[in-house]
Amino acid sequence: MSVLVQSEHGCVLDSRSLIDQGFTRCLRWKDGQRSHVQCRFKGQWFQMCRSHEAAAVDAGHVEVLQKANKPAKKRKRKHSELNQGEIDSQIFHEKIRSVVSEGTKSLLDSSRSLGFLNGATDTVKEPLPVHECRLAALCEMAKELPLVDDEEQEHVQALVTEDGCTSHVDLFSRVTENRADGATVVTLMGEEYVIPPHASFLLSDFTRIQPLVHYGRKFDLIVMDPPWENKSVKRSRRYSSLPSSQLKRLPIPLLASTNCLVVTWVTNRPSHLRFVREELYPHWGLEVVAQWLWVKVTTSGQFVFPLDSPHKKPYEVLVLGRYRPSAGHSPSSSETSEVPVEDSRLIVSVPSALHSQKPSLSEVLQRYVGADASCLELFARSLQPGWTSWGNEVLKFQHKSYFTLTPADDRADIPKDEDKHTVTL
Fold this sequence. Notes:
The chain is of the alpha/beta class. It has helices at about 15-20, 50-60, 60-70, 85-115, 135-140, 210-215, 230-235, 250-255, 270-285, 335, 360-370; strands at about 5, 10-15, 25-30, 35-40, 155-160, 175, 185-190, 190-195, 200-205, 220-225, 255-265, 285-295, 315-325, 345-350, 375-380, 390, 405, 425. A hairpin with a 2-residue loop joins strand 3 (about 25-30) and strand 4. The longest helix is centred in the N-terminal third of the chain and has 30 residues, at about 85-115.
């Protein structure tokens, strides 16, 4: 299991196991030939052994000391003068600080007593690949293709034919389904990708989201991680951000079933949180039911940033809401028996070194939507077994460079996930 500990405070996740559980059986198609392989997400992505602050000091301690000894430069405003955003951030932090501090300590103590988060790391030491993702650029190029009339367009296609062929696949205007019971390694656009079992996806942006609407599914769970606008994103140019107002264009009412649970990852910027709670969710007909926190820790259980750091915090916010259709809708008995969602729960895990890769919420949210729920991720950068995913980089972290592929019979050094058990406290 990938949920290591559960209590009234929340849970502790093993993010890597959450990824790997979809790849216990994997079939690789290459040059018309198929072979069985074992796929594992490279563990080095989750080897955060030290906090960012400690690592920075170790890497440049001389420079840090030099800067500390230099006279402070004049600033346009006094250090004590905070703008409204900074004041709002401080107020929010003080409000949730005890929840984070006490809840995380309790969960970490339980994890350590069971042998988890004790500083152990993967013994494999190999250089991590640097894969340049061009999917967003390809989406832009695909927009030059003429749109096909909705009535004439086939909106769904199989990932592979019986002989393993993928040359027919149109990734940009059709939802692609892996209908196999196991994961599949296939070549798409000249690159190999690892596709989880029963995963569906559409590679597009806002302008080509209609195939998802015409897919014919209503979803019981929708998770999204929008590309929020902020200064660090603009400086790094890692991905294109999206103005908050544009999120209202997402056709959530057309995709959500009654009482659908919608979960949105939000940055620590107070204006974004207010926008989601007070504008975005009401616009979609959603009722806010809970607010959770993802707490990021190292492999030894330290916060990745000091809890009271004035710049970056070791947590991120999730806003959970339920879709409430118009008053004229008559809910069925199954729709009225929703499971209440507890407020202020924590999700504690070691974050990935990959920018903006969030932990899977599939196991954490299952009790609130049911084991057979139809699930959708928006702005996805990876796929999950049994889920539908949409985004202009939806296959990014499925590229084979992020995985270790070994022959299926070469399993001696592969740890078994079934040795891990969830402990409920």
